[in-house]
Amino acid sequence: MLKSRRNLLSAVVIGLIASAVAMPSFAAEKKLTLGFAQVGAESEWRTANTTSIKEAAKAAGIELKFSDAQQKQENQIKAIRSFIAQKVDVIGFAPVVTTGWDTVLKEAKAAKIPVILTDRSIETKDDSLYVTMIGSDFTEEGRKAGQWLLDNYKAQGDVNIVELQGTVGSAPAIERQKGFMEVIKANPKFKVTRSQTGDFTRAKGKEVMEAFLKADPNINVLFAHNDDMAIGAIQAIEAAGKKPGKDIIIVSVDAVKGAFEAMMAGKLNVTVECNPQLGPQLMDIVKQVKAGKQLPKRINTKEGIFPMETAAKEFPNRKY
Ligand code: GZL
After folding, report:
1. CATH class of 32-136+276-302
2. % the chain with pLDDT above 90
């Protein structure tokens, strides 16, 4: 009796083990794939933005296919077409300029691949071509720069301002200029006398500032659309025998580490924050899009402003 019970029990145990082993193993959930077409590597801001996206994709378990367009729209378009051919789950990109995207985004729509804009916006009549845009309010950044100048520059006579614009046709260049001009027009003494693109790079910012200084010995203020151009301009101002931050007041945007170092050296007066750390938000949105969640067309990032006096205290907190 006892023997037959033991045989029965061992038969049951073996049966259970066999069925467990034979259980169909559910395939591990398929990894989401994000194709991301980055603008380039033109500035400290962009480098920090790329780092944030790559680190966040890894942390989120999202497979990232990444391309660097060297600031050329045709390269971004090529990358987006390649992502479509590879049938990625979602396409993300930071449009180098605002126009010329409808054709390739219609191809993504036809392939049923959702598109997320990050950092910069586009001009299109068909906003079904993208799900949402995550980024800063560049017009507000321009307003903050203009307001700081009106509040802090004690004008005796006319204030002669020169402007280093970002990439021609890019949303940050268009909108920062718009916001800045909107605010300074409140005081007619503040005049932008020269304005030219430095393409968001240090090298070009230095080159254009050299030309401004040659043409006009009486510059009072520089408004630079990003810190990299401001840092290049600082080199030109010093080479011309002038003191940046004193002889020429410098107002900039991004709040990258290089700007804090220049402010601590007394060579830059203020930088308006533009947060590049969009990676975690982007990955969260990729998952929401694939889960079919409804999203607002525009998701703004929160930002501050850092004058020279706050630089030493804030610098240790900076992550980019
Ligand atoms: C702003 C971003 C701009 C930065 C520049 O969100 O698009 O491009 O201000 C960068 O530093 O090159």
Report:
1. alpha beta
2. 88
